[in-house]
Amino acid sequence: MSEAVRRLYEAVLASRGKDPSTSKTAKLFAAGRSKMAQKLGEEAIEVAIDAAKDNRGAVISESADLIYHLVVLWAEMGIKPGEIWDEMVRREKSLGIAEKVPKQAA
To answer: By C-alpha distance, which of 76, 81, 45 is closest to 63?
Structure first.
């Protein structure tokens, strides 16, 4: 899985400078971070709606879109997939792999 995300990340970086009229990825970079974040949110909502409808196939398809948009945002922010995996390892050591770090009280 992490290898596939790394390949996707490299492909996203390679598409960054392409013509936005022919590359969806280049178009996202040209539109900026706010548009990238919006698209990421839209995909997350689509996954949630399809899950609520028990549409397994759509959840798979929309999850792939969600991962794509997440990776585009990482690339725009200069976040490498390895940094995410490092954080996951850190969390696994303190909480276990299937737990989420609790939010800090504000």
So the answer is: 45
